[in-house]
Write a structure and sequence with these properties.
Elements: H1 2-29, H2 34-73, E1 77-81, E2 87-90, H3 93-98, H4 102-105, H5 110-113, H6 119-127, E3 130-132, E4 137-147, E5 153-163, E6 171-177, H7 179-197, E7 201-206, E8 214-217, H8 219-225, H9 229-232, H10 248-258, E9 263-270, E10 276-286, E11 295-302, H11 304-326, E12 330-334, E13 340-343, H12 345-351, H13 364-372, H14 384-388, E14 396-400, E15 406-416, E16 421-428, H15 430-466, H16 471-504, E17 511-515, H17 516-533, E18 541-544, E19 551-555, H18 556-573, E20 580-589, E21 592-600, H19 608-612, H20 633-643, E22 647-652, E23 658-665, H21 668-672
Parallel strand pairs: 18-20
Antiparallel strand pairs: 1-2, 1-6, 3-4, 4-5, 5-6, 7-8, 7-11, 9-10, 10-11, 12-13, 12-16, 14-15, 15-16, 17-19, 20-21, 21-23, 22-23
Length: about 675
């Protein structure tokens, strides 16, 4: 192109110089006057023509510069051919596309650049192309393979044009390297096939339209939901929720979309047939260059089975948690890293310590150290690590001092389900231990109590059988035998009564309306003789039955037994000359009217520790054996009174006697009145 510009300028300069030379030579032969005028006119014409030619040349130069700038800027290779098909022009971009510079490329034919594209092929392609009437060009466009300088071929988009006017360039060939375009198209096809083949549903919504309708959905979407393309395209995905729109996850989803953010939620969706499925929906914005979000992509994953399994696990966990929370046994769980992850309420009740609420994680070793502070140092126990080292011997007993004295049975299980978890099991066996101890005491006491009268019975009967005795002596022996036998019978009866009450739990109570005064009189009667026989006479028993006419709805025999046991203890533990008082009171039980019978003695009294254990079976405030008894009386009283809906209250101080109040509810008709 520059060569063409240079030839035009040279021609113009030569033309201008020749004209001026011719003009000077002509002036020699022209005569003055009219001839001078013609010379002047001719000179002016030549000057005007020269100036016009210079303007045209300048315009042509600027046009050529602009064309050259455009050619330098165009990334496509442009190759110009003359009428014979020879390369006459090569753009700078050809060096990038083909590896040939303009000078080297001019020596090649177009077929060297684009194999098979010789002049006949060019004419054939153009003849099958289009004629652009406005520009007068014949054009053709097609894709083929081009060849680089190193011999490698690449896909190319080729545009051919032919100018019918004689401009020096007959043919123009524009070659564009479409390697990246082909790769992008291949990747696009791959992505498209991947979307078509994925098991997840994929939808794309147009956010620029009202309601953000779906304009694309892959086959898996229809397979998961059961809908057809006509049912989904053009609609908002909200149709999958039907009427089930009160889902917190929907609010979370809308908030994320309104902020142009990604979000993943699990929604309850419904198929076309109405069946429920759980949809794990992940949405992400597709941003435009200007920062707007014209589209949103949603990926649906049917997680129904997973959610059902999760809910089943959650329900099972909830049931297990409820069992553990309601269990009287303590549980502590450590994970595979020996970190404490769970402890139940029973453990808190036993120890007063809730390790789960600790700000820092608690390891198994740290738990051991803290727990050891609660135990009795006089009774050392194995650490959990030591127990786990001996899996064949994991059960032992602990003695707690804090928050109160308790005896706990401990067992440890490690490697649960092969996951390395450890479970600590604790059971409060304080009562069982105490019962065992009391049973041992009872056996000792009962053996002593039974042995004494039985020895008397055996001894006196042996004397009566083997030796002659006088009638007065014989009668005295028989009375002793009778008295000791009665003591044995009473002891056995108490044991049987207590066992029967425990077993029946009040089912054998024979309730009927009873007058309180009658029950008190019957209970006091056996002891009035003792009071009259004792020194001090009437001072021994003081009665104040102010509520004698109060009606109770009780088993008279059982209620009488309870009153009798209380009075018996009062008389047994009151020293000679001491007074026992009996009075009645009015009050309430759980908001209902009630009446109380209070028995007070001036006996040895009880310490707080003794008072705490007074209702324990086989427990005796005086373990010396000087005062007869089995330790079952107050246990029997408590069982009988509580089965009647009542309550037993005891106040006592060492050396100052004991006061026992038995509260029983009034009969329903009396209470209603």
């Amino acid at each position: 192109m520059k060569r063409l510009i240079w030839l035009s300028e040279s021609t113009a300069s030569l033309f201008d110089a020749a004209a001026r030379l011719w003009l000077r030579r002509r002036q020699r032969f022209l005569t003055p006057g009219a001839g001078s005028r013609k010379v002047a006119e001719l000179t002016d014409a030549l000057n005007d023509a020269s100036a016009s030619l210079q303007v045209q040349l300048e315009a042509t130069r600027r046009t050529q510069e602009r064309t050259h700038s455009i050619l330098n800027a165009v990334p496509d290779a442009i190759i110009g051919l003359d009428a014979d098909g020879r390369v006459a022009l090569v753009s700078p971009a050809a060096a990038n596309v083909f590896g040939h510079d303009a000078q080297a490329g001019a020596a090649l034919s177009l077929a060297d650049w684009v194999p098979g594209l010789d002049l006949p092929e060019i004419e054939r392609r153009i003849s099958e192309g289009l004629f652009m009437r406005a520009s007068g060009l014949h054009v053709a466009r097609f894709e083929t393979n081009a060849r680089r300088r190193d011999g490698t071929e690449f896909p190319a988009d080729v545009s051919l044009s032919r100018a019918d006017a004689d401009t020096g360039l007959r043919y123009t060939c524009v070659v564009r390297d479409i390697t990246e375009q082909r790769m992008a198209f291949a990747m696009l096809n791959l992505y498209s096939r991947a979307l078509e083949c994925t098991s997840n549903g994929v939808v794309i919504s147009d956010m620029s339209l009202p309601g953000a309708p779906v304009f694309y959905a892959n086959p898996s979407f229809y397979k998961i939901t059961g809908y057809d393309p006509g049912d989904a395209i053009g609609r908002n995905c909200g149709f999958l929720q039907r009427e089930d729109t009160a889902q917190p996850e929907l609010v979370q989803l809308r908030d994320a979309v309104s902020r142009g953010e990604s979000c993943t939620v699990v929604l309850r969706n419904y198929r076309k047939d109405g069946s429920l499925f759980f949809n794990e929906l992940a949405v992400a914005p597709v941003s435009a260059p200007d920062g707007s979000v014209p589209h949103y992509v949603g990926v649906l994953n049917d997680v129904t089975e997973r959610e059902r399994a999760r809910m089943a696990i959650a329900e099972r966990s909830a049931r297990l948690n409820a069992v553990f929370d309601l269990s009287p046994d303590g549980f502590v769980v450590f994970d595979a890293e020996a970190q404490l992850v769970y402890s139940n309420r029973a453990f808190l009740a036993m120890t007063g310590w809730n390790p789960v609420e600790s700000a820092d994680p608690i390891s198994l070793c740290e738990f051991d150290l803290r727990f050891a502070l609660l135990t009795d140092p006089a009774l050392p126990t194995r650490s959990l690590a030591e127990v786990l080292e001996s899996p064949e011997d994991t059960a032992d007993t602990l003695s707690l001092l804090l928050p109160e004295r308790r005896v706990l049975a401990r067992d440890v299980r490690g490697q649960i389900d092969g996951k390395g978890e450890t479970i600590l099991f604790l059971r409060d066996v304080t009562r069982e231990t105490e019962v065992d101890r009391m049973k041992s005491e009872f056996l000792t006491t009962a053996a002593h109590e039974l042995r004494t009268p039985m020895v008397s019975v055996f001894g006196f009967t042996e004397l009566l059988l083997n030796r002659p005795v006088s009638e007065p002596r014989r009668r005295d022996m028989l009375e002793t035998i009778h008295r000791q036998s009665q003591l044995l019978i009473n002891m056995v009866n108490e044991l049987l009564d207590l066992a029967r009450i425990e077993a029946r739990q009040g089912k054998d109570l024979k309730r009927k309306p009873c007058r309180l005064g009658t029950l008190v009189e019957q209970a006091v009667a056996p002891f009035q003789g003792q009071a009259e026989a004792a020194k001090g006479g009437a001072e021994r028993l003081c009665l104040n039955v102010a509520h004698a006419d109060a009606m109770l709805y009780v088993d008279a025999e059982k209620a009488l037994r309870a009153f009798t046991n209380v009075l018996s203890n009062a008389f047994k533990y009151t020293p000679a000359g001491g007074a026992v008082s009996v009075e009645t009171l009015d009050g309430e039980l759980r908001g209902a009217p009630a009446v109380g019978v209070r028995v007070a003695d001036c006996g040895i009294g009880m310490s707080p520790e003794q008072l705490r254990r007074v209702f324990d079976r086989f427990y005796r405030a005086d373990p010396s054996g000087n005062i007869p008894g089995t330790g079952l009386g107050m246990s029997l009283v408590k069982e009988i009174v509580e089965l009647h809906g009542g309550r037993v209250e005891i106040e006592s101080e060492p050396g100052r006697g004991t006061t026992v109040t038995v509260w029983l509810p009034l009969a329903p008709e009396v209470a209603a009145a």
